[in-house]
Structures are given as C-alpha cells and as structure tokens.
Amino acid sequence: MSLSFLLDSTEDLSLSTLKSIKLKKSLIKLMALNGVATIAELSKETDFSIPTVTKVISELIGEGIVSEDGKAGTPGGRRPSQYGINPKACYYLGVEVKLHSVNIGIQDFNNNFVHFSENVSYTPENTKESLFTLCSIINQFVTDSGVQREKIIGACINLSGRINSRIGFSYSYFFFEEKPLSEIIENQIHIKTFIENDTRAMAYGEYHSGVVKNEKDVIFVNIGWGLGIGIICNGQLYYGKSGYSGEFGHSPVFDNEIICHCGKKGCLETEVSGNALLRKFKKALENGSISILSGKKAIEDITVEDILTAITKNEDTLAIQIIDEIGTELGRFLSMLINIFNPELVILGGALAESGMYLRLPIRTAIHKYSLSLVSLDMELKMSSLGSKAGVTGGCYILRDKLFYST
Predict the structure, then answer these.
(1) I want to staple 205 with a disulfide (CB 3.0 to 4.6 A). Which of 189, 225, 394, 400 is the partner?
(2) Which parts of the chain register pLDDT below 70?
(3) Containing structural domain, residue 163
(4) Burial code of 90-113, b = ≥16 C-beta within 10 A, e = fewer?
(5) Given the DSSP bridges, would you call strands 152-159 and 91-97 parallel, antiparallel or unpaired?
(6) Residues 246 and 144 in one domain
(7) Could you read off the pLDDT of 106-158 as tens digits, one per residue?
C-alpha cells in the first residue's frame, strides 16, 4: 500500500473509516515534519490514546509506510521505540514543460531525487496530439525509473502562462476541452495529477532546497524565453484570486510596436526576455555588428543557447552588451516590485540566469539606482542554485503540501 489514500476523495466513507484516515494522516504528517517520534509523543500530539495510536502505527508498519527507527535517547529505564516514515513508501513526480524540452524527475518521501532527466526533446503545441505525446514521455520515464507506479502519490505538471491550479485548468496550453487539464493527463498516466505555473514551482523549489535560508518574503524572477515571477509571502506561495499572479512580463511598460505572444503590444518581456535577447542579437548582426558567432552560423539559425554560450565561454562583446542592456531594464522595473513588496530576497533564475554576473551586475546596479535605498539595502539579490532542477523540485514540494496540508 502507498500513501495515495491521503489524496483520495473521502466522500461516501463511513465515520469509522474517516476517523482512521484522519488519524493516519495526522501521524504521518507529524513524522514527516518532525522526523522520528515515539508512541507517547504521537499520542500527546494527536490527543488519541496510546492503544489507538499503537494499533494504527502497527497498521502503517504492515503497509510499509512506517518503520521503527531506533530507540529514544531518554535517561534511565527502558527506552521507547521511535517511528518514522519509510522514504520508499511513496514518491513524487515533477514535470516541467519548457519551450522545446521537458525536465522530469521522481523524488522519494524525503524529497531526494531517485531519477531525473532534463532537456527531453518536446515542443508543446495546443493540440491533443501534442498533449498525448507529453503523456507518453511521462509514462516512458516512469517505466524507465523502476519506481512502482502505484507508489507515486502524485504528479505536478508545470506549464507557463495562465494556470488555475485549484481547478486544474491551463488557459495558455492544451485548452481545448471542458474537462480540467489535470483530469485529462491523470487519465493518461494513471497518477493523481495537479498542474502548476512553472515560475511559481521554480520559486517554491528554491525556497525549500535552493538559495533561500531563513527568508520568508521572496521574489523569484524567471527570465527565460518569457518573463515571470513567483511570489512567496511569509513562507507561502502567493496565487492571487484565480491563481494568475506573477505575470510580470505582461506589464505594459514600453511604447513599441512589438506584439507579445499574449497578443498585446509593449509588454515588458518584448524587451526583457530570451526572445528579446535573440531578436536584438540577430538585428545587431544584420546591421553589421561583429560577434564570435559571425560566420559560424546563419543568422536565422542562431539560438538563445548559442548567445549564452558566447557570453559564458567566449566573453563575446556584442552578446555581453545586449545582456547588459536587458539586465539594466529588468533591474529598473524590478525596483517597482521591490518598493511595493519589500522582499528579503530576490532570486534570478531561468535560462538567461546562466549568464551569471553578466546579468546580475546590471540588475544590481539598476536596483540601487531606481529603488528606494532603505528598501533595496534591506534585501539580497542571488542567483538560483537549483538551475534546471528548480521547477521539478518545486513541483514535488507542492505535492508534499497537498498531501500534508490540504484540508
């Protein structure tokens, strides 16, 4: 048996079964958050009798969910046994869908990766065929992982754009049926499925396993092909009323004629994003500028990855100049967010963050220039430490929260 029963519907269950599930959930949550515990400690925390807790712990041991984990270090007398969750009792599946690839991983109960693959070739399109291809990639990954499917308690699929994770709908990709996208995917992969905004998941991954230490108010900036932010307030992800918070890149701040992929003109990400970097770089080459990439590839074949490599490996002057311009603009508009939210920490992540100091330094300079000094001096600016694993890691932690914190 796995922990999947904790996500199952409790409708039409008897009162005694509901009480049993409630106690099991309480015991598992306590051990998940506090590590090992004795029967007496669990009894005190749950307000259930020692015989009742002992009976349920025995059931959980028999189901392979709980195991004895040594003796408590109490002074004198017979030391009581301690119990903890078996890390192999359940697994979390995280999937991050990017512009031309998929990152996918499975974590055990302790949020350690047991299997991970990145940059699996895939281009999302708003068609059923593309969705079913994604499901096939997920199914093959699970098969290759060697993890029993029934032990995977849930899957979190991260997509860009407008995501209502509460009801399971995506309004940017795969929006062609009245059914929730989460339900469609779940029927294909046979694992309880949730969907999440990719930037929000990346923010949560960094919060739990990345550069965040004790900070509780954090802004994560995902500067990839587009531009978005994930907001953490007092240690909690901020969603907004319908779950669409963080669409920073669609702020109408430029008086240009560039049409954003959202259909509007003048969005921030038309000038500050991987898409903008590629467009500006190609235009500069067409106008006669010289780069390490000149003559090596046809201009139309150059990619964002080529430009980032030119920056980090070759210190290409043209590429550095353009990333500096983008960083300066991003820093200027981040100053507005910093003045509004007064965060403890701003994290730079996404594809363009791979350029490291070449992006960070102009952002830092612009923040000092444009934000209120008392606010900017009270925060730190750091680069993501999880990189390509941020979104998958965050998805797994979101699953953990749905398991232990959902009502």
Answers:
(1) 394
(2) 1-13, 73-77, 405-407
(3) 91-202+391-404
(4) bbbbbbbbbeebbbbbbbbbebee
(5) parallel
(6) no
(7) 999 888 999 999 999 999 998 999 999 999 999 999 999 999 999 999 999 99
